[in-house]
């Protein structure tokens, strides 16, 4: 399949494996790239030297293109960017920050830059900053999310209407049918997160993967908007957050409850009670743990089948 995303990243299929914290290590990213899509390392959960190790292992495991997702709100950002350049990474996805801060610096070094947004306003700001493509992520998405609660179904055509550069849809996409729908709405490709959490190659704890597979409609909720909006599976920690909200908490009180390393405890260490369990609404459609290759093959077959079905309407 040839289109703007395939040509931009020099990949086979217009699918990006999202660079998720505590899930997207070198095994997942290299497996995704080897399957013909774009694999991303999730730098948000890595100290700088850990990121360097994952980049080096990814280069050993694949000769296909891969990139790094960098949330700009994290510390050590300058060191992280220098490691990315030192190690010869050619694709960077930035998020959670002003794209003007790093886009020109990265592009001057020959790096393709993509920025993740959740609104038309920030899509246009990223385009103005000179990024090569946009990921527009709807309210359905897992992990950190937008405050406006704009769904993918409405966000993608609104962004497409005003955007000149390639557009990647994210949020609620785990099947080939959803991929086709996003592209009909104007996306040039899709970014998939939650489905790859439930893969053999994901670095998520097996207990977290089981929770994702068992999740049903309504089991996730967007919360903690005062800090950084995050979609969580409902568990003991989530319930504590909701109880605190009944008291009209300050930002400081919310931060105190959240504490440190709660996402690591939940997704990476498997603490299903007190950990932060980030996943998208589409977890209700994920019923098994598969290899990355199987997931990609399934999506591509579903995409082709959906195209044929649509022609009969």
The portion of residues forming beta strands comes to: 15-25%
CATH class identity: Alpha Beta
Order of helices and strands, N to C? Answer: HEHEHEHEHEHEEHEHEHHEEHHHH
Tell me the number of structural domains.
Answer: 1
Full CATH superfamily name = Aldolase class I
Which class of secondary structure composition applies to the elements? alpha/beta
What gap, in angstroms, lies between the N and C termini?
23 Å
Q: What is Rg?
A: 18 Å
Helix content: 40-55%
Strand order of the largest sheet: 1-9-8-6-5-4-3-2
Primary descriptors:
313 residues, alpha/beta, TIM Barrel, eight-stranded parallel β-sheet, three-stranded antiparallel β-sheet
Describe this structure in words.
- By secondary structure, the chain is an alpha/beta fold.
- It is built from 14 helices and eleven strands.
- The protein has a single domain (4-203, 283-311), classed as Aldolase class I (TIM Barrel), CATH 3.20.20.70.
- Helices cover 42% and strands 15% of the residues.
- The strands form two sheets. The chain has an eight-stranded parallel β-sheet with strand order 1-9-8-6-5-4-3-2.
- Helix 2 packs parallel to helix 3, helix 3 runs parallel beside helix 4 (77-86) and helix 8 (176-184) crosses helix 14 (292-311).
Give the helix/strand layout:
Blueprint: H1 4-9, E1 15-17, H2 26-34, E2 39-42, H3 48-61, E3 66-71, H4 77-86, E4 91-95, H5 103-107, E5 112-117, H6 120-129, E6 133-137, E7 143-144, H7 152-162, E8 167-170, H8 176-184, E9 189-192, H9 194-197, H10 206-214, E10 220-223, E11 230-233, H11 236-245, H12 251-258, H13 262-268, H14 292-311
Parallel strand pairs: 1-9, 2-3, 3-4, 4-5, 5-6, 6-8, 8-9
Antiparallel strand pairs: 7-11, 10-11
């Amino acid at each position: 399949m040839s289109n703007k995303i395939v040509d931009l990243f020099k990949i086979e299929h217009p699918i990006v494996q999202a660079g998720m914290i505590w899930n997207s290590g070198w095994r997942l990213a290299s497996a995704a790239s080897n399957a013909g899509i774009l694999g991303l390392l999730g730098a948000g959960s890595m100290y700088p030297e850990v990121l360097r190790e994952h980049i080096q292992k990814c280069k050993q495991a694949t000769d296909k293109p891969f990139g790094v997702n960098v949330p700009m709100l994290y510390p050590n950002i300058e060191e992280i960017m220098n490691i990315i350049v030192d190690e010869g990474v050619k694709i960077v996805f930035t998020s959670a920050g002003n794209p003007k801060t790093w886009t020109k610096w990265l592009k001057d070094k020959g790096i393709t830059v993509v920025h993740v947004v959740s609104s038309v306003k920030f899509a246009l700001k990223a385009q103005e900053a000179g990024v090569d493509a946009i990921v527009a992520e709807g309210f359905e998405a897992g992990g950190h999310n937008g405050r406006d609660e704009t769904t993918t179904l409405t966000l993608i055509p609104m962004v497409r209407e005003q955007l000149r550069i390639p557009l990647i849809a994210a949020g609620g996409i785990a099947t080939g049918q959803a991929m086709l729908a996003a592209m009909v709405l104007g996306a040039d490709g899709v970014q998939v997160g939650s489905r790859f959490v439930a893969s053999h190659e994901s670095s998520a704890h097996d207990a977290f993967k089981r929770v994702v597979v068992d999740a049903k409609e309504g089991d996730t909720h967007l919360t903690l908007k005062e800090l950084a909006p995050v979609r969580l599976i409902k568990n003991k920690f989530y319930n504590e957050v909701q109880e605190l909200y009944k008291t009209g908490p300050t930002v400081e009180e919310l931060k105190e409850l959240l504490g440190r390393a709660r996402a690591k405890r939940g997704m990476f260490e498997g603490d299903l009670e007190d950990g932060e369990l980030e996943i998208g609404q589409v977890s209700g459609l994920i019923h098994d743990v598969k290899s990355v290759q199987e997931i990609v093959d399934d999506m591509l077959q579903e995409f082709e089948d959906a195209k044929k079905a649509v022609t009969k309407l």
